[in-house]
Specification:
The protein is of the alpha+beta class and 493 residues long. The protein is built from twelve helices and 23 strands. The strands form five sheets. Strands 5, 6, 7, 8, 9, 10, 11, 14 and 17 form a nine-stranded antiparallel β-sheet that branches. A hairpin with a 6-residue loop joins strand 7 and strand 8. Helix 4 crosses helix 8, helix 4 crosses helix 9 and helix 9 packs across helix 10.
Length: 493
């Protein structure tokens, strides 16, 4: 199934054939606040303020102020849907990505004749050029600093070594030809490339591809140590599709872009230039991020000077709600793969599965399903949790459960916590460790162990049964039958 999809359009066509996975509307929607407000109730899920739900991906065909534009949202806002798009059992996606990391397929450059993303070209020197009218970028809430690009695949290279990388950053439309870009310090390779370029007094050429194969969106979210500096994550997407991602040469900068993207922005991150992220709106806020909060606008943030925007004919702009289930899919599944890889190397066969759960936005919370098969396995489950923290530095909480608990069912996980866990012996705090700056509780005002913002107390919750006690914790044994014999229309959910 996975090779039926190689871009956003083929992904949408696949979903159209699967009941309950796709809807669209011709009713006009305002991209300023309203579009996200609608999808919040349709299918965003995640850490979005309730009421929200998991639901279908959605295309809006009539965008106020942008005649002829279309906006797609929620492509990956369901783990089940990610499974359809990657041709994999949703509970095995971490294993699928882990295997893809081990057999990368490098991207290839193609000629201008295959650059579908350049069918329509807008150049910055054109009269009336304005990215705010070309791009139907939405805001999530009335507090946002401005319209944001939330699913732009940023591609750039190290000006000294030539190493390429692709990452996703939040970027705010700041004027006719300017974007601001937020790069978490030390967390993304393009941030490193920019530091190198700025130290040389040079601008960093960057392409931003919007509306791409979902395999690229998921692969882009891998982080070190699984994908160290020099590892191009597009090669993971190539492995998932069993064919290389095709790149095209940009028209106005010395950089590559994704050839079949719906939109491409060509530009340069300027050296020595900073602006306030809310320069145009003055709201004091940025946008809602994955933890579910709208954080403050960054007072001094780098600037991208836009040189051109290119598109396919009748392009589809793609966006996501910051705290939606889409973020959990994009960041959580690669994190699962990284944890599976690291623990498997240390203790083969013991870690049965991992779920980076939605309440943590795919970053803060992992549930490890661990198998103790002999007395010497006691204690190894906590070693696995420590390895998980090493595999993904932004992880904050790890829950460990036995093999008879479904890690993807948080009610089952909480059942294990209530019947197999004692707080005085099964909580393992690790204070004073760097985590993630977007968690507002990671601040000195919250705990004396936090020396500066972004430091956290990482914690293990060991909800496993001691090996010597397993005979006392056998779950009630039910007959395993298929209810479809009695109720043929039953879908198993």
């Amino acid at each position: 199934m996975q090779n039926q999809v190689n871009d956003l359009r083929s992904a949408i066509e696949l979903l159209k054939g699967i009941p309950g996975q796709y809807i669209e509307t011709d009713v006009e929607v305002d991209p300023i606040d309203e579009l996200s407000g609608v999808y919040r109730r349709i299918g965003s899920g995640g850490t979005v303020k309730r009421p929200t739900r998991l639901g279908p991906a959605m295309t809006f065909n009539a965008i106020k102020g942008h005649p002829g534009a279309r906006v797609h949202i929620g492509l990956l806002a369901s783990r089940k849907r990610v499974g359809y798009l990657l041709g994999c059992d949703p509970k095995r996606l971490g294993f699928l990505l882990n295997e893809a990391v081990d057999r990368p397929v490098a991207p290839v450059e193609v000629g201008a004749d295959k650059a579908l993303c350049q069918e329509v070209v807008y150049r910055a020197e054109d009269e009336d050029f304005d990215i705010r009218t070309i791009l139907p970028a939405p805001t999530n809430t009335p507090d946002d600093a401005g319209p944001y690009l939330t699913l732009g695949m940023c591609y750039a290279h190290d000006p000294e070594t030539g190493v390429h990388d692709v990452t996703i950053h939040r970027m705010c439309l700041e004027g006719p030809d300017e974007l601001s870009i937020y790069m978490v310090p030390g967390a993304r390779h393009i941030g490193h490339f920019y530091e190198v370029a700025e130290a040389r007094g040079e601008a960093l050429p960057i392409s931003i591809s919007i509306g791409v194969d979902p395999a690229i969106e998921v692969s882009t979210c891998f982080e070190p140590p699984t994908t160290p500096l020099g590892y191009d994550e597009l090669s993971i997407a190539g492995a998932l599709r069993e064919q290389p991602v095709e790149l095209a040469r940009c028209l106005t900068i010395d950089e590559l872009c994704i050839a079949n993207a719906e939109y491409v922005i060509e530009g340069e991150i300027l050296p020595g230039t900073r602006i306030a992220e809310d320069r145009e709106s003055g709201t004091g806020f940025a946008m809602p991020e994955f933890p579910g909060y709208t954080g403050p606008a960054v007072p001094e943030i780098p600037v991208i000077k836009v040189k051109a925007v290119t598109t396919r004919r009748n392009p589809i702009f793609q966006t996501c709600i910051g705290p939606s289930e889409e973020h959990t899919s994009m960041t959580g599944i690669p994190t699962e793969a990284s944890i599976l890889s690291m623990v498997e190397r240390a203790m083969p066969g013991k870690l049965k599965n991992v779920y980076c759960a939605s309440p943590g936005g795919g970053k803060y919370l992992a549930v490890l399903q661990f198998c103790k098969s002999q007395p010497s396995d006691e204690g190894r489950q906590r070693q696995a949790a420590l390895l998980a923290f090493s595999a993904f530095s932004e992880l904050k909480h790890v829950f460990i459960v036995d093999e008879d608990v479904d890690p993807f069912d948080l009610e089952d996980v909480l059942w294990a916590m209530n019947t197999r866990f004692q707080g005085d012996v099964d909580v393992v705090p690790i204070p004073g460790v760097r985590c993630h700056p977007l968690d507002p509780s990671n601040d000195p005002s919250m705990s004396p162990s936090i020396r500066e913002h972004g430091i956290a107390c990482k914690t293990i919750f060991d909800c496993t049964v001691p090996f010597s006690e397993k005979h006392r914790f056998v779950r009630a044994r039910f007959l395993d039958v298929d209810p479809k014999h009695w109720v043929p229309e039953f879908d198993g959910e």
